Amino acid sequence: MADENDDGVISYSEWLMTAMNRQKILTHEKLEAAFQGFDIDKSNSVSFDEIKNFLFGAKGFEENYLNQIIDRVDTNKDGEISLDQFKALMFELLS
Ligand SMILES: [Ca+2]
Ligand SMILES: [Ca+2]
After folding, report:
1. Number of Cβ atoms within 10 Å of the Cβ of 76
2. Nearest bound ligand to CA 79?
3. Which ligand is closest to the CA of 80, given by its number?
């Protein structure tokens, strides 16, 4: 499948593309699963409280630090984190 130019050999760039695509899918699915885990009331968005409950329980992030990040990620300022905003949040937290 990864052998795109059909020479029977998987070149480094073909291998790299496959690996990168796989990584993208994995990350996307993981983040969606995490999003659903955070969204306790199944409202399809994650509120500040849901984020805080989850992260304080799991890792004990500082509230000020969290507020700053959430404020930056919640670009439309409705106090709820959509799936796209949630992905940005996770990249912030994990980077
Ligand atoms: Ca929710
Ligand atoms: Ca929002």
Report:
1. 8
2. 2
3. 2
